[in-house]
Amino acid sequence: MMIVAVALILGVLFGGFILIPRGSQTEVCSNASDNKASKIYSKADVSLHNKRTDCWIIIKDKVYDVTSYVEEHPGGDAILTHAGDDSTEGFFGPQHATRVFDMIDDFYIGNLEQ
């Protein structure tokens, strides 16, 4: 009888362990198309990445690591003009084709600290 009682108690505990959720597992996502987790960067953080070999830019309070694109940029070194800084005005200039607005999401790494 004792074995049956212990088995019943263990069964209830084990069943409760499986059925009861163990906390929420939410994921923070950005508006970028690939839903990368968002990270927050300060302007000081971004300003450290101001070279051809390490180039971050800010566009509309979002941070992008465009290092891999610097050499491919059709505008040459123009992309480096605002390396480590806000490039919103230049990005939305008339020189860019509409496809650049789709491409930029590939370089998204986080948001600018408000």
* CATH fold-level assignment of the domain at 39-112: Flavocytochrome B2, Chain A, domain 1
Number of extended strands: 5
The percent of residues in helical segments reads 25-40%
Structural class: alpha+beta
- Look at the structure and give the CATH class of the domain at 39-112: Alpha Beta
- Output the radius of gyration: 24 Å
How much beta, percentage-wise?
A: 15-25%
Going by CATH, what is the homologous superfamily of the domain at 39-112? Cytochrome b5-like heme/steroid binding domain
Tertiary shape: elongated
Keywords: Heme, Iron, Metal-binding
GO molecular function, one term: metal ion binding
InterPro entries: Cyt_B5-like_heme/steroid-bd (IPR001199), Cyt_B5-like_heme/steroid_sf (IPR036400), Cyt_B5_heme-BS (IPR018506), Cytochrome_b5 (IPR050668)
GO cellular component, one term: membrane
Describe the structure.
It contains 4 helices and 5 strands, in the order H-E-H-E-E-E-H-H-E. The chain has a domain at 39-112: Cytochrome b5-like heme/steroid binding domain (Flavocytochrome B2, Chain A, domain 1, Roll). With 114 residues, it is an alpha+beta fold. It has a 5-stranded mixed sheet with strand order 1-5-4-3-2. The longest helix is centred in the N-terminal third of the chain and has 18 residues, at 2-19. Strand 3 (54-59) and strand 4 (62-65) form a beta hairpin. Mean pLDDT is 79; it is low at 22-35. The radius of gyration is 24 Å and the shape is elongated. It has helices spanning 2-19, 43-47, 88-91, 100-103, and strands spanning 40-41, 50-51, 54-59, 62-65, 108-112.
